[in-house]
Design goal:
Number of helices: 14
Oligomer: single chain
Radius of gyration: 19 Å
Helix content: 40-55%
CATH superfamily of the largest domain: Nucleoside phosphorylase/phosphoribosyltransferase catalytic domain
Shape: globular
Largest sheet: 5 strands, mixed
Number of domains: 2
CATH architecture of the largest domain: 3-Layer(aba) Sandwich
Order of helices and strands: HHHEHEHHEHHHEHEEEHHHH
Distance between the termini: 50 Å
Amino acid sequence: MKTGKDLNEESVPEFISLLSDPQFTEDELAAITIDWKNKGETPNELALIAKYILNKIDTLQVGFDVVDCCGTGGDNSGTYNISTTCAFLAAACGLRVAKHGGRKTTSSSGSIDFLEILEVKTFSQAKDIKQELENKGLVFIASPATQNILGRWKGVCKKLKFFGQTGLIGTLTNPVNLSHQVLGVPKPEWGPLMLEALKILGRKRALVVHGHPTMDEASLCGKTQIWQLEEERTKYFELEPKELGFNIQNNYSLEELKGGNPEQNAKIFHQIINGQASKAILDTVLLNTALVLWLCGTVSSLDNGIQETNRIIGSGEVRRFLESFMT
């Protein structure tokens, strides 16, 4: 299959079938992938692929607002599991959160790897996801799309060093019908691409973020670029660490945000919820959680979101939420 032309509703099924068909060699899949990447992905293609995949898996429609916070991966930064921690904190603030994730590709600890060490259950069937979301307000979803449809292609992209490529699609295939989403990208050119795809998929409000230097999270190492969707209107803005009210003399270094293997990251998680983490990691988690709260209208500003997240950690509310969540 040649992908020199944009994929459309007729060619998307063929494209996905090729990616998952064991009759095709990895070399053939690599050629298809390179051809498509060289052409350049379009928002409509990504949305069409996501819709096709969602029609193939067990999806869930809900009658209330639900948010996801996830990144495409592929930034090779080795940072701590920031967005997964933000999911816990946002849920402790009262939001309904459906956190979609996978296993490690370029990091030492993917979301699912990290959750396993924390002994947090993950789900992939709609009935289980719905029950967990309704009963606890927070559910962690082991990406059925990545596992069952994109799994082999993920390996091909890794060998090609096309890091984050499958994440472009994976982040759009949460089986819950999301109203809100914070999505991180490691490359600024993916910002407007993913925002438009989220718009096509019908998100009510969304933020796509890229942090300096190559983070698929908001960053206090330097500037964070943000593409915003609100009721079909889009805008772009930037955040500088010095504008955010954190008491830091200089921007943090990427090295200060490094995590480790899942066991090491689990220790950092417990340090965070007990107020004992390094200031660099804690502040970065506070900022990223504040973005989720602000997007969902829980707080009126990022400053308020940072303060609220800091408050629930300091008051022990996060620990109590976690204890209830784990029962």
